[in-house]
Design brief:
272 residues; 11 helices
């Protein structure tokens, strides 16, 4: 009972912190359930993490939509890459089978390092140019590059059980020419479509034992989902009201670096 209560508190906190920065929290939901509850990294864990991510993206996405922080044209274009990527990602998970754990963590390290570099670069450019963050960046959007970038995000969403905001936000800023707050809202809207696609595709390939495990955990998962929704709605409102865009990006970067270090440490321990 104590362990379940701590997990619920952890999920609430993750949702609260991740919601304002356009991320679903999967990067920490997976470690929390894997290390904190000793769940193996398998189809059941991926499906639960994606479900919690969907709840966070829904709660935070509604808050951002009410404030007008989204771009429908970018959403329509990006989904043409993200949805096929998510379906392909499930196929990769099925093919990896028992080798999923080390591959999962290795890919996570690469993805997180890329996101950290891109976010730091964007922070530096904003600081140097004193960019007016209320306006989108000027320039022609390369739609093929945008779809390729979000396609990678969709693939990693399925493989790593994340919302992929860590990919979507930098891509939407760098390639989609969106200012930070709008990129975050657009990222959340992508998750609202892509994550359910990833969940449904994962469920099609669950083994009998994984379905049994998921059924046994359903009551607990519902409590987790409630905590994630409450955390995301409260976190999004707090972030929109009290956090500047530069602060949001710094929080985003800090979360990426913390998660990156955790996976690096785990890989080092595995190799040693």
């Amino acid at each position: 009972m104590l362990e379940s209560s701590l997990l619920i508190i952890g999920i609430f906190a993750i949702a609260f912190v991740f919601a304002p920065v356009g991320m679903g929290g999967g990067m920490l939901f997976v470690p929390l359930l894997h290390y904190g509850a000793d769940w193996p990294i398998d189809g059941t864990l991926l499906a639960v993490s994606l479900g919690l991510t969907a709840v966070v993206s829904y709660g935070s996405g509604l808050a951002h939509r009410r404030e007008g922080h989204y771009d429908d044209a970018a959403i329509r274009s990006a989904l043409k890459g993200a949805i096929p990527g998510a379906i392909l990602g499930v196929g990769i998970v099925v093919l990896l089978g028992d080798n999923l754990d080390p591959v999962f963590k290795s890919v996570s390290v690469i993805m997180l390092a890329w996101a950290a570099v891109k976010t730091q670069s964007k922070l530096a450019s904003i600081s140097a140019e004193k960019h007016d963050e209320s306006e989108d960046y000027e320039g022609t959007v390369n739609q093929l590059a945008l779809r390729a970038g979000t396609g990678i995000g969709g693939l990693l969403s399925s493989v790593l059980a994340i919302g992929a905001g860590v990919i979507y936000v930098p891509v939407l800023q760098q390639i989609g020419q969106l200012q930070t707050r709008k990129a975050i809202g657009t990222s959340l809207h992508l998750m609202l479509v892509v994550v359910p696609v990833a969940i449904l595709t994962h469920l099609l390939f669950l083994s009998t034992s994984e379905w049994q495990a998921l059924g046994d955990l359903m009551a607990l998962v519902l409590l987790f989902s409630l905590a994630a929704y409450m955390g995301s709605t409260m976190g999004a409102r707090f972030g929109l009201r009290y956090m500047s865009q530069s602060i949001v990006m710094r929080v985003f970067l800090a979360l990426v670096v913390i998660t990156l270090l955790r996976y690096v440490l785990d890989l080092v321990q595995t190799l040693s």
